[in-house]
Amino acid sequence: MNDEELMQQALLVARKALASDDVPVGAIIVNKMGEIIAVGHNERELHKDPTAHAEIVALRRATELNKSWRLEDHTLVVTLEPCAMCAGAIAQSRISTLVFGAWDEKAGAVGSVWDLLRDPRSLYKVEVRSGVRATECAQLLKDFIQGVRTKD
């Protein structure tokens, strides 16, 4: 699958977060053969866990399956630009490639506010491809936020 098709899969995963009133962010991890080995969506509200971002959930599942914390030659596809916590976890896991959709102008750590993964001081470099299906990814978040405001 190409980046567009992978992001479509991540969007499907993101929508699952809506069942627990979590922000609809989805992540998938693909191995070097192009197989989806793990998925995750935001579960912060579901588990009352501030670290249960989509990326972290997917990384935990992938490392469990891999029986190793090292995910070299894997790609992480996520619907929203990772925050600082998630960018750090991506670097620590040795993910080779990150593909993301919408930019996060308030908390993004892969180009918007900070750029932790491509900082020249970073110990581990990650290839980053951004803006994949960005409009669709951003719209899903906007619809969620407007729905929350309507409830209040």
Automatic annotation (TrEMBL):
Catalytic reaction annotation: adenosine(34) in tRNA + H2O + H(+) = inosine(34) in tRNA + NH4(+)
InterPro entries to which the protein is assigned, alphabetical: APOBEC/CMP_deaminase_Zn-bd (IPR016192), CMP_dCMP_dom (IPR002125), Cytidine_deaminase-like (IPR016193), MafB19-deam (IPR058535), tRNA_aden_deaminase (IPR028883)
Which Enzyme Commission number(s) are listed? 3.5.4.33
**Cofactors:** Zn(2+)
Which GO-annotated molecular functions does the record name?
tRNA-specific adenosine-34 deaminase activity; zinc ion binding
What GO terms in the biological process aspect are recorded for it?
A: tRNA wobble adenosine to inosine editing
Q: CMP/dCMP-type deaminase domain spans which residues?
A: 1-124
| Oligomeric and partner information | Homodimer.
PANTHER family to which the protein is assigned, alphabetical = CYTOSINE DEAMINASE FAMILY MEMBER, TRNA-SPECIFIC ADENOSINE DEAMINASE
Please identify the protein, giving its name as recorded.
Answer: tRNA-specific adenosine deaminase 2
- Species per Swiss-Prot/TrEMBL record: freshwater metagenome
